[in-house]
Amino acid sequence: MTDTPVPSTATSAPLRILITGSAGFVGSHLVERFLNEGHSVIGVDNYISGQVSNTDLFVGHPRFTFIEADVSHGIPYEGETLDWVMHFASPASPPHYQQFPVETLMVGAQGTQNGLELAHAHGAGFFLASTSEVYGDPHVHPQPETYWGNVNPIGVRSCYDEAKRYAEAITMAYHRSRGVNTRIIRIFNTYGPRMRPDDGRVITNFVHQAMRGEPLTVYGDGSQTRSFQYIDDLVEGISRLMAALYHEPVNLGNPVEFTMLELVEAIEDVLVRRMSVEHRELPQDDPKQRQPDITVAKCVLKWTPQIELKTGLDLMLQRDAANR
Amino acid sequence: MTDTPVPSTATSAPLRILITGSAGFVGSHLVERFLNEGHSVIGVDNYISGQVSNTDLFVGHPRFTFIEADVSHGIPYEGETLDWVMHFASPASPPHYQQFPVETLMVGAQGTQNGLELAHAHGAGFFLASTSEVYGDPHVHPQPETYWGNVNPIGVRSCYDEAKRYAEAITMAYHRSRGVNTRIIRIFNTYGPRMRPDDGRVITNFVHQAMRGEPLTVYGDGSQTRSFQYIDDLVEGISRLMAALYHEPVNLGNPVEFTMLELVEAIEDVLVRRMSVEHRELPQDDPKQRQPDITVAKCVLKWTPQIELKTGLDLMLQRDAANR
């Protein structure tokens, strides 16, 4: 019923794209890419976890408009017809969403619904940024999109995990019952320039601790693994999914796994110096292991991550240092 | 922080209790019980799945007030201070929530939040009706409250299951971060008088098919099991939980399991006649097996179900016949 093509960024015609969370880490990289490709971008953010500096990068660009608004209370856009509404607004790191649990729940529910309604009204595509957190503490490894997850609905992380599961459910409901042309990605750990120094996730912690000359904080014994995707790989996957007519969730992440201690070694290699390590207790409900099965992305999008960890760390350190 | 007692219905002082979904099956039995105990009740319903006849039962009662409203868009109550806000509004049977997927998602998110905000403003207790559906198609049997469930976030039932998981998450968020005195129950299959004939769940299907002299519809081979709780047992459990200071979810259900074919036999015994059976295919995502572990309710509430299946079926048939 809904499989009428939405114009994609892969076509030559310039598009009008509204991005919620445009001042966030991933949002700001999308803005950059779409502007570079010749599209018009309307960024929306309330700066609950986004950074003003990420808006300042584009202010004055003739094809960039910014609206400061909390999308959970409505998206005050009254301009020309949109081609895409891309919902990337949400606190996304544990210290942020645990500081704002109700706001995090709301941007997953009301925020997603406001985006869906806007897309519906404009006949635009709707693109949801979901997360590997919907898999919770998985019993299946690696996680394919068909795995239903293992999430504690009442745990301290549930304000984020359940909000994203709800966001997926309402996106599918609008797709099935109201014909909105939707996309869903489940983003696995991603890193790169312009992450908040207080983001709280392991790569930013390590990079900023290293830059300050502090010991690197390792939770537990450091044997837990994570996969790390460089931001440019994610943005490429997003662009390809916009061009594909595929409505089920797609994992976007780098399946190569590293233990926390291997990550310490990679940082040591890039910086060419030894680091001291401080061990702390694992937080409550901390997922032990998460790794994407990217069969769907490979098959549907012909996409695989291109940037290796040390290359990405090097790029991140260079670009963040250049922006200081 | 939040463990200041809320007055309970077990105390002698009359309370003011607002019930969303008051025209629904469970809601209407709560209204009846609280009015009988001397409390004042404000019922709220928009009749998306509730029945006007369930409001008519109490119209004219000096302590009953009714507000017709969709609680997803706000609860327009401006009366005296409430002691309890009890959120029982939601389509709850698969044919209803699949007909209204977006409304079902909204009453779980915005509806729950509006109830929490109202409770917070009044310093009232907030009581959430959650469901055994949060366990999805469980891998653990029977299901204790600590089991995290196995729910398909993008399946056709997810509009209900994920809405309820979200409702639990936001209830815990308001409890933890805003000090609201909350309760959560997970209701397992419940039956009794005043269910909608088109409810779609197995006991109403069987009872109404039997009353019309039609064959009983059994999905699959009829070997899948369900547990069935009589409404009066559920209402007693709810009343006891209001009096307890316990904020984690509590299963309320009857752990005695019956296969669909045993349920057919029970109906035959109560009606003292043989039934013909028509087999149909199992619907997509239909949970194969669900049974409550009621250790918490036994321990915290000193509660166990008292009414056996044949007794309950007999009561249901008598009372529904009397209401015709």
UniProtKB/TrEMBL annotation, chains A, B:
SUPFAM superfamilies attached to this UniProt entry: NAD(P)-binding Rossmann-fold domains
Domain of life according to the entry: Bacteria
UniProt-listed InterPro entries: Epimerase_deHydtase, NAD(P)-bd_dom_sf, UXS-like
Residue stretches spanning the membrane: none
Cofactor: NAD(+)
Domain NAD-dependent epimerase/dehydratase: start-end pairs: 17-252
PANTHER family registered for this protein in UniProt: UDP-GLUCURONIC ACID DECARBOXYLASE 1, UDP-GLUCURONIC ACID DECARBOXYLASE-RELATED
Protein name per Swiss-Prot or TrEMBL: Epimerase
Organism field: Deinococcus sedimenti
Upper classification of the organism: Bacteria, Thermotogati, Deinococcota, Deinococci, Deinococcales
